[in-house]
Queue: 4 jobs
Job 1
Amino acid sequence: MSRPEDTLSADVHYNDSEARKYTTSSRIQNIQASMTHRALELLDLSSPSFILDVGCGSGLSGEILSSIPPEEGGPHVWIGMDVSASMLDVALQRDVEGDLLLADIGQGVPFRAGTFDAAISISAIQWLCNAESSDVSPAGRLSRFFNGLYASLKRGGRAVCQFYPKNDEQKKMITSAAVKAGFGAGLLEDDPETKNVKVYLVLTVGGGNLEGKGGDITGVVKGMEGVDVLDARHNNRSGKGEIKKGSKAWIIKKKEQMERKGKVVKATSKYTGRKRRVAF
């Protein structure tokens, strides 16, 4: 069975018919509610917070954010962004409490720095791994999204993104993009090695005071089994040394900058940056 993100972009796939079908399905409602509560458990918010719902769709997750009782740290105020106008139209018809924004997360997160206390995303970010045209790369879309998300969260803020990776390579690509943006990242799998497996990417922005660990991801996933922690922010720091122009490291850095802008660049190989012999 093919995945919808392999054939169409999200704004095309979720037309009026699909948006209504998605929202009225009791099965999808139950799954969405379960994953949203799991994401909130991982966020571990102790007081009402301002939350960004990435890929909010018709507001199924947002309704839960608004209904969290005070004894559980709620209710939360939220803003939802989605690329599907049909999904947002259904959310408006359902009169959800959050504000809604029509936007493509692959083009970034258009909010001021430090706007949100936290962010959640349910079944959305895997759509970034498919480029709609040849001049836009998945790496560039992922980079713009995670860089924008990192900037929009307050220091010490957290984000939990549930997604359905096609394979381990896609899982690695998404996680690497988050780490490169500056996040501390942990991958958590519920019901691993089953057809009902759910993957959660737990992200933190440094500078908080998470159980005395300075906002480190290990404070979020402490005591959880089967969690891979990936955090490259404190690795390979090499003083004030500058990268020599024209070197392999310099070329790779330039390629990464081009990818962030959504450009397609040639793959790095063992020949990258190698000097050519002078031919007479």
Note: The radius of gyration is 20 Å.
Job 2
Amino acid sequence: MSPSAITELEQHEQAVSAALSNGVHRTNWHTSLTYGSTSKNSLKRTQFLFDRNLHKSYSVVKGGKGNYLYLSDGRRIFDATSGAAVSCLGYGNQRAINAVSAQMKTGIPYLASTFWGSEIVEELCQELISGTEGKMARVYLTGSGSEAMEATIKLARQFFYENDKKTSRVNFIAREGSYHGNTIGALGISGNVARRAPYEPFLMTNVHQVSACNAYRQRLGGESDASFVRRKAAELEA
């Protein structure tokens, strides 16, 4: 749940009113262009799901194809934000549907990697490694970005721990304003002040922030790419 989910009711109602008046519907606070009229009756608050926002009403999606989502009230939405900004396969991708369906038909939708190996998993890892032109040698699969960050934190620690049980390498460096995930460890690495605020008492204290790397806003007058990179590198090493 968003930290501000319980307190942003007024902002939400204002956003809904604006959306109804201008034809733009805000889905999970990402703006997407909608086709067709919008009415408050088409927005629904969840009854059983402990949702991200307890005050927000959501349009109900019935299907999707390509870049478009189709709602229960007949409207069509062009999703310009790729879901939560990280989806790239498109909706109703037949190739993905066929691959998932073929694997389900094997009777093995899931295997505990503690005990078993899988040829299809090896094939996936090999494909991912091939895409790096040999820069990767192994793949650790996770179910989400937050889980990947948690695994990265542990892996970084374990690397030094396995070489020296008394290692003092315990600090992490992250960017100001960064977002690395929704779990406690990932949130501890993140630099987004608003998201961190409610949980500060039990976030990691061994994380150090450096400024974000934004050449558009931070480059000095006449500064070259190389000079900008050197300046950022110096801040990282300071």
Note: The chain has a mean pLDDT of 85.
Job 3
Amino acid sequence: MSTSENGSANDSAHHSDYEPQAWEPPRWNVLNDAAHLINRGPQVPSQPEDILAALDRYEQQFLPHQSKSLSGIAVRSCLLGIVFALSLSLSLVLLWTGHPLWRPPFFLATLSTFHFLEFYTTAYANSNAATTGSFLLSANGSAYSMAHSAFFFEPLISYFLVPFLLPPPIQTTLLVLGLSLIIIGQLTRALAMLTAGSNFSHIVRHTKARSHRLVTSGIYSVLRHPSYFGYFWWAVGTQLVCGNRVFLVAYPLALFRFFDRRIRGEEELLVRFFGEEYVAYRARTWVGIPGIR
């Protein structure tokens, strides 16, 4: 998954989870356009059409099919809410009746919560970066969608074709462990995004921004890539709760390969950007994903 964590989990790194981006002049919006027009001074009087053009450019981004489309945000939030409510209700009914197929709808409820919180946390921590893509519904590509579809269908296939029941005490232990990992993973990822604040972005950047600094406080004082840590263990937790056997092994291995490559690449850039400061920071923190130092 690309969390930039995206991110995300899939994230771009501010210090560790967001690769610093090249400095660019701030995007024009209605406020800095107005300031620009005022600062030109009396020799170049502001024209009403200039102000109207600035307002038009600012408002365009909120129209349908644009990056910050209000209708697009509303539709995505509504659909995720409907999926969450229906899936959780069905899961609780099946669980109450003792039916083992409560797990697939519970996974859908968990997944819809994850995608909603990706947008909500981005909007809360870094409003300027929040777009319809911040939900990460399609930003991670077809492989991501296919994987989550497989997670949903494995318990169904297992139930109808190759049923396998563990002793109740083991089932309960794995379920509690899975739920705990989902909660810990989700909270850690959200905390990472909130701590990064305005430096958070789901888009990977490959050059250092002039305003970037190395964040080493809060959750980052322990974990170098907390959003990756959060997504990895969230994903493991979902497989435990679903009772999946194939993807309980396959998905963590796939995530390990993905995050191992991603973290190596990011940290090469971060050493170049921050030098010995990052080397020292890396030496006293950990990643928290098995096999990745």
Note: Residues 2-31 have pLDDT under 50 and may be disordered.
Job 4
Amino acid sequence: MWLTDAQKIGVGLTSFGTLFMFLGVVLFFDGGLLALGNILFISGLTLIIGPQKTFYFFARKNKLRGTICFFGGILLVFFKRPLIGMIVETFGFLNLFGDFFPVVLTFLRQLPFVGNFLNLPYIRTDALTINTW
């Protein structure tokens, strides 16, 4: 699969956004890092799939609750309430992107070391319950 230059930049922005959000959580919910991570993540996602598809993804009727929680959490982070904002944003993220978890789990099972770990008996049964959400 070949990516355009804008999509390559989008992957970089999304990766840095995820990194900044992770660092913001690790550093005791630092509002600046979380806000920067949110901005980079949203702009990267827009560059990867395009503005029109991004709008239609967030505007779908069955994803409305997730969209409201996701953007509401981002606003709470911007308004200096990072802990509550990240909880609300995580709930929205799971509602929006929860359909992709089985695909990610299937991909991770094909990796050399992670696949062996995910195929252990107790972890496999937990992964199957996550896969059937």
Note: The chain is about 80% helix and 0% strand.
